[in-house]
């Protein structure tokens, strides 16, 4: 019985609230909507003029086709840089250049030699004309502080190009 009484009171309160909202007039809102459009003058820009398509016929038959692979157009001058692949490889050509370290030099008469340490901590003596690294690195110069190399590498078009590198002397401070 108490539940029914509570329910009926709640229902009456709800009906009162709903009826209070429905009786209001919206004259102020209607007036605002009517006045908001006054004084507005809309202007739409005209559409841009459509340019006509100019037809073009491809007549550049003398220049290379951009869609054909460059592999077929190998230049003879680049092929001359190709390393001698039949030459027997030297011991230090099996190591990447990053894994080789110059640790010193020796001089006998007028010949200067560089001392190279490999990743397995063995030391090798090299001279100008020897090869280092995996990119056919020919030793072109040795000084007290560096070894100069001329490497021959393939670029992205599989053409041989020269690259010059330097292997610097590693001092005790650089080891730490």
UniProtKB/TrEMBL annotation:
Keywords: Signal
This protein's name: Type IV pilus assembly protein PilP
Signal peptide: 1-22
UniProt-listed Gene3D superfamilies: 2.30.30.830
InterPro entries, alphabetized: PilP
Species name: Nitrosomonas nitrosa
Cross-referenced Pfam families: PilP
